[in-house]
């Protein structure tokens, strides 16, 4: 299986460049790059607004547009940090210099048995992660409970366990399953309900569950995030790092969430290198996801020199300017398409 990953580079006339990831390369080149050429790159909010308004010309700010804006926005923040000699995490607020990271990526294979899922949960905990999430991709309630039970046994009582439900159940089933999860001390229940029914059900799940209710990974707009938090009662906002339009819009979402005593933990297990600087900047940042470096399907630990690292379930923020990341040109050359 192969997958394309876009790397966005923004060049300044002083020779510096900033880097972002994600988005659609053709869309960036055709629609957004012309809006930036010749502009002052440090006026990031102004440039973000220009790109966002332009997105309405082609059916509104959908996923392709927002991920492209997000990739460019992150590159602009990287460039800004390099130009002023400061790390991005400090420019974003500098709240903490170490960020908790949880292991993600288990359970996508519906054929994995409960024992196999639990073994992977334990494997990632043994790598130093103090929080592990697995995915539920089948609606069988009893099979789900066996996966949760065995995973909690494998993990022990002191580490955090989360599940991503992927909206496979209807509302009443979600509420019932939330009650059944309670003895296993889940830290959060993610995307428990299909997105066309989430507002009314989130609050019912909150009432039934000891776990936090997390979701919103596909929500890229500020008004959409407001709806999930204020009407739905969402406790952990997970707007994706690039779907949300990058750091500029995520800062607004973080402020919105904090005003309602909610956390923010952006989705994107292939982007811990980009999520961690953001979470380091804001006070209500929770944890960053990562497909562990031991897994063959991840890219974040391979594409830089020196490599971005997660050690003992944490990422130490850099003192280097910008994101502090340099592309491994040999890696890029080998896999460039």
Automatic annotation (TrEMBL):
**PROSITE patterns given in the database record:** MR_MLE_2
Mandelate racemase/muconate lactonizing enzyme C-terminal domain location is 114-212
The protein depicted here goes by the name: Mandelate racemase/muconate lactonizing enzyme C-terminal domain-containing protein
The family database entries (SMART domains) matched by this protein are listed as: MR_MLE
One GO BP annotation is: carbohydrate catabolic process
**Which GO-annotated molecular functions does the record name?**
hydro-lyase activity; magnesium ion binding
Instruction: Give the lineage.
Output: Bacteria, Candidatus Handelsmaniibacteriota
Pfam families noted in UniProt: MR_MLE_C, MR_MLE_N
* CC cofactor: Mg(2+)
- What InterPro entries does its record include? Enolase-like_C_sf, Enolase-like_N, Enolase_C-like, Mandel_Rmase/mucon_lact_enz_CS, Mandelate_racemase_C, Mandelate_racemase_N_dom, RHMD-like
Q: Which UniProt keywords apply?
A: Magnesium, Metal-binding
Q: Give the species this sequence originates from.
A: Handelsmanbacteria sp. (strain RIFCSPLOWO2_12_FULL_64_10)
């Amino acid at each position: 299986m192969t997958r394309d990953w876009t790397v966005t580079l923004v060049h300044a006339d002083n020779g510096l460049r900033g880097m972002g990831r994600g988005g659609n390369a053709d869309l960036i080149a055709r629609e957004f790059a012309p809006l930036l050429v010749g502009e002052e790159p440090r006026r990031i909010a102004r440039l973000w607004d220009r790109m966002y308004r332009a997105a309405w010309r082609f059916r509104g700010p959908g996923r392709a547009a927002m991920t492209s804006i997000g990739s460019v926005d992150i590159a602009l923040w990287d460039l800004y940090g390099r130009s002023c000699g400061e790390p991005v995490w400090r420019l974003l607020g500098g709240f903490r210099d170490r960020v908790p990271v949880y292991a993600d990526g288990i359970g996508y294979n519906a054929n994995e048995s409960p024992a196999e899922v639990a073994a992977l949960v334990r494997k990632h905990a043994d790598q130093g992660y103090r929080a592990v999430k697995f995915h539920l991709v089948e609606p069988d309630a009893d099979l789900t409970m066996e996966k949760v039970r065995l995973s909690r046994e494998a993990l022990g009582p002191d580490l955090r366990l989360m599940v991503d439900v992927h909206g496979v159940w209807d509302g009443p089933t979600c509420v019932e399953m939330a009650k059944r999860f309670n003895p296993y001390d889940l830290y959060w229940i993610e995307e428990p309900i299909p997105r066309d029914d989430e507002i009314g059900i989130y609050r019912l799940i909150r009432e039934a569950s000891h776990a936090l209710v997390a979701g919103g990974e596909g929500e890229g707009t500020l008004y959409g995030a407001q709806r999930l938090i204020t009407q739905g009662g969402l406790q952990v906002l997970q707007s994706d790092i690039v779907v949300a339009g990058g750091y500029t819009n995520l800062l607004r979402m973080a402020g919105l969430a904090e005003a309602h005593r909610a956390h923010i933990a952006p989705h994107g297990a292939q982007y811990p290198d980009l999520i961690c600087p953001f979470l380091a900047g804001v006070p209500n940042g929770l944890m960053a996801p990562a497909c562990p470096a031991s897994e063959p399907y991840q890219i974040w630990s391979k594409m830089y020199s020196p490599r971005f690292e997660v050690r003992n379930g944490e990422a130490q923020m850099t003192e280097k300017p910008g994101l502090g990341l340099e592309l491994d040109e040999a890696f890029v050359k080998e896999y460039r398409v």
